[in-house]
Request: fold
Amino acid sequence: MLRNLVQADGVVVHFFQFTKIALDNLIETKQGATKERWLRAAKDKALLPLLDRIIAETQAEHLFAALKAGTVSTNVHLRKLHNFAIGMGWLPRPIAHKRQWPEIFFKEKRVITWKEHQAIIASEMNPERRAFYEFCWHLGGAQSDVASLTAEDIDWQLTSRNDEGLEVGRQVKKSFSSG
Reply:
């Protein structure tokens, strides 16, 4: 699976034959949630045409076609894979230089409206998840923020009332002490 490439200066560069093998090697260096993200990224349909390519024979137009077909995530992960292959010596030179890569634009984040929240609650059949969504709404927190919330993150002395008249501090304390 390894090939050798002799560069013009006589240096022998070893590289993996297929991009898929390089991607698998990159994933093996990751742990936990990062590894899970990479495993999901490896399933990106925009990357499929690249996976059977010999790395050193991949051209910039192949990368740009994948970027055009993909998402922001494709752009981020393909850059990292490209840099990983260069760092490992599997690419004799960059396929695309830093300035050639399209800029990464993330969508603007926004909060959901009361109407959207109500629609989510109405469609959620799992009572535990529905309660979690209600909890998020009352706290004004994103799911990931609330999921990682710990008792130490809360000022137990502070209470405030939201639009429904709910005293937030007391409700949060009650939720943490009953669990």
Remarks:
- The chain has two domains: 2-100, 114-178.
- The radius of gyration is 24 Å.
